């Protein structure tokens, strides 16, 4: 059985980015745009994230595959 250690998103951000402070809105945007892997889960109104989660950023979060060929063409070639 896998045991995962979850911590609050704000605590994870403080560990991952020492010396930086991010607003709750910014951290929520990271979650909603899938910039943290594995994805955090909402528990009791708070975002909880695995302690060993990684911030992958927006460009890596938006990589394919895409279900719509037009979206894939736009994302890959910009047209």
Task: Write up what this structure looks like.
With 79 residues, the protein is of the alpha+beta class. 39% of the residues lie in helices and 19% in strands. It has 4 helices and 5 strands. The strands form 2 sheets. It has a 3-stranded antiparallel β-sheet. A two-stranded antiparallel ribbon has the order 2-5. A hairpin with a 2-residue loop joins strand 3 and strand 4.
Element layout with pairings:
Layout: E1 6-8, H1 9-16, H2 24-32, E2 36-37, E3 41-43, E4 46-50, E5 54-55, H3 57-61, H4 69-77
Antiparallel strand pairs: 1-4, 2-5, 3-4
Arithmetic mean of pLDDT = 85
Biggest beta-sheet profile: 3 strands, antiparallel
Secondary-structure element order, N to C = EHHEEEEHH
Residue fraction in strands:
15-25%
Give the strand order, joined by hyphens, for the main sheet.
1-4-3
Counted by DSSP, the helix tally is 4
In whole angstroms, the N-to-C terminal distance is: 47 Å
The helix content is 25-40%
Number of strands: 5
């Amino acid at each position: 059985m896998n045991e995962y250690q979850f911590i609050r998103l704000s605590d994870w951000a403080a560990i991952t980015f020492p010396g930086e402070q991010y607003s709750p809105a910014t951290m929520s945007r990271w979650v909603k745009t899938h910039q943290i892997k594995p994805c955090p889960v909402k528990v009791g109104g708070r975002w909880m994230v695995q302690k060993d989660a990684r911030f992958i950023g927006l460009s890596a979060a938006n990589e394919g595959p895409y279900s719509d060929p037009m979206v894939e063409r736009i994302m890959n070639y910009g047209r």
